[in-house]
Specification:
The chain has a 6-stranded mixed sheet with strand order 1-2-3-5-7-10, sandwiched between helices. Strands 4-6-8-9 form a 4-stranded mixed sheet. Strand 2, helix 1 and strand 3 form a beta-alpha-beta unit. Helix 4 packs across helix 5, helix 5 crosses helix 6 and helix 9 packs antiparallel against helix 10. It is an alpha/beta fold. Helix content is 45%, strand content 16%.
Amino acid sequence: MIDMEMENGIATIYMNNPPMNVLCTELLMELDSALEELEDDENLRAVIVTGKGRAFVAGADIKEMKDMSFDEAWEFTELGQNVLSRLEELHVPVIAAVNGFALGGGTEVALACDIRIASKAAKFGQPEVNLGVIPGFGGTQRLARCIGPGKAKELIFTGDIISAEEAYNIGLVQHLVKGYQEDDSGEMVKDEKGRPIQDNEPVFKAAMEMAQKIAEKGPVAIENAKVAIKEGIDLPLYEGLEVEAEMFAELFDTEDQKEGMDAFIEKRKPLFKGE
């Protein structure tokens, strides 16, 4: 259900629960184990999360949820929240390569990532109210922090599903790339039923290019920047500035800071070691 690949310090996590990569208990536990492994990897520089097939994550497993009691639902939402918090709190940047449907839990997975790159084939939304429930894996909290409470309330209260283009326009997504196969003239290739054929390669390529760019930077500096943003964003400005000052000053006890500044003065590319 979770496939993971590692190359040059960049881990790619594939959601692989056909046909739509829904979040069930087994998948969440596998994801938790994968994240635990990554937490201890000193050579890790970035993580990409994406889906196999047509979907990124098309939601949580409704068949598993439909007969849950209060206690079982509490346990399920707690598992999902804990796993996505673990994803959010990884010490390296996490990039969501949203290749297709990212509904309900799928939008929540994307929100737990630091940066979201979407294929034009992607769809976003929190349609849980159509099932008589609400987002339970962090959607009510992260979505409002990401796009503002008014727009978050609109999407959660209506259950509307939005296009990748609209997700980009409201700030849910940072980059938008091609999502369908094209012929030599730039026209979309369609299947026998006249539907455009989805192409996951552009969004994965864009995410990998960004991950590689990040991997070349000072890893301790990236980690401290992530901490400063996360810890400071909900604080009053003067307290956030104190967090930034501490994260900034800490870096002057690292070999990476000395290497980075020496390399700049010597007009060469720095060789960071994460120390």
